[in-house]
Amino acid sequence: MAIKEDHNRFRDIVKGKVKENFKKYVSQGEMIGKRENEFVKIPLPQIDIPNFRYGAKQQGGIGQGDGQPGQDVGDPGDGSGQAGNSSGEHLLEVELSMDELAEILGEKLQLPRILPKGQKNIETTKTKFTGLAPVGPEGLRHFKSSYKNALKRYISSGTYDPDEPVIIPIRKDFQYRSFKKVTQPQTKAVVIYMMDVSGSMGDEQKEIVRLESFWINTWLKKHYKGLETRFIIHDAAAKEVDENTFFRTSESGGTLISSAYKLCQQMIETDYPINEWNIYPFHFSDGDNWSGEDTRLCIKVLREFFCQM
């Protein structure tokens, strides 16, 4: 149990460090490439390792000698010198779940609580396994961990026989899966991404879109199970595409933003009744529209449809 408490304290420290440097992590595109299922790997070089410091001078005891109060033990040097061939310090890479990232995102940006919509907003209770514990119901005994503990006990006591490797776990070897009950909303939601792929949108703009969509999905998936996503690209004409095409389409052509808004409106009216779905449309563009007339048409669609949802 003490190890579990230490692990929980360490994770609290990690989350604190991520919050301190949240702006940097939000803008790091390479972090998205470190996703593994529902986890993201984040490098943390800022966690300080505890070290001894001189206290008040006393008679006898450990750490006595020349030095000033508050001075670190050892001389760190001035950083000058020749290049060496030994290994240096490496970044500590930790894993955070998508839910943990979403929690930090909401807390740091003070995002509002998402309100449910429709008649199918039923909350269900789900069992979430959180780790291992030395006690628990027999139905949740974790065989692999219990066997490992028994094997360690045999080896440390010198009774392990590789020619006859019979391992019998006893009560103190047992490990059980620990869990907690979490409530998950079943509200239906869809995110519709629209992106300008005209000649004025380059790779840098697309990278910004990729980062934005990652964090939008991270936040919304925390609140909605089975979040749907749709993708629309447009230059002078709009069409629906898959996610891969959305981020890899080459830039060309002019810009008629209203074409994307009209297709998005048609999509919503056909597939997502407003009284049953939470609908989140996002449009990414440099704002360089083809004509003032089309801009006026965009404003008309926004006012008469999207702002009324």
How much helicity do the residues have? 25-40%
Classify the fold: give the CATH topology of the largest domain: Rossmann fold
Please state how the strands of the largest beta sheet are arranged side by side.
Answer: 8-7-6-9
Oligomeric form: single chain
CATH class of the largest domain: Alpha Beta
**Distance from first to last alpha carbon:** 51 Å
The CATH architecture term of the largest domain is 3-Layer(aba) Sandwich
The total domain count is 3
The low-confidence runs, each spanning 5 or more residues with pLDDT under 50, are 86-90
Average pLDDT, all residues:
75
Gyration radius (Cα, Å) is 28 Å
Order of helices and strands: HHHEEEHEHEEHEEHHEH
Tally of helical segments? 9
Strand content: 15-25%
Tell me the CATH superfamily of the largest domain.
Answer: von Willebrand factor, type A domain
Largest sheet: 4 strands, mixed
Strand runs, count: 9
Question: Mind explaining what this structure looks like?
Answer:
This protein has three domains: 1-48 and 91-111, no CATH class; 129-183, no CATH class; 186-308, Rossmann fold, CATH 3.40.50. The chain has helices spanning 2-20, 22-26, 29-32, 98-109, 143-157, 203-223, 243-248, 257-271, 292-304; strands at residues 35-36, 39-44, 92-97, 123-133, 176-185, 189-196, 228-234, 238-241, 278-284. The protein is built from nine helices and nine strands. The strands form three sheets. A four-stranded mixed β-sheet has the order 8-7-6-9. The relative contact order is 0.11. It is an alpha/beta fold. It is 36% helix and 20% strand. The longest helix has 21 residues, at 203-223.
